Known about the structure:
The protein is of the alpha+beta class. Helices cover 33% and strands 42% of the residues.
Amino acid sequence: xxxxxxxxxxxxxxxxxxxxxxxxxxxxxxxxxxxxxxxxxxxxxxxxxxxxxxxxxxxxxxxxxxxxxxxxxxxxxxxxxxxxxxxxxxxxxxxxxxxxx
Length: 101
């Protein structure tokens, strides 16, 4: 698990992005966002807090096999979660034009 603190303006932009594009998990109040890196999908489980913090709980690596099936691997290593969050924010900056980084 990692926690990243943002300034109010950036946090608001991230929150808006999650509300519009992420899958909400009502059972625990988290959001799922997909990051694609070199044909591999990573599903990040994110949670917003009231004090401009974004929590990344875990990620699931989805490897697509040639036979149409998928392999799933849970990722909890902080350095990998941090990198995936950075990629997610960077990808959404380039797609939406918002300053999320």
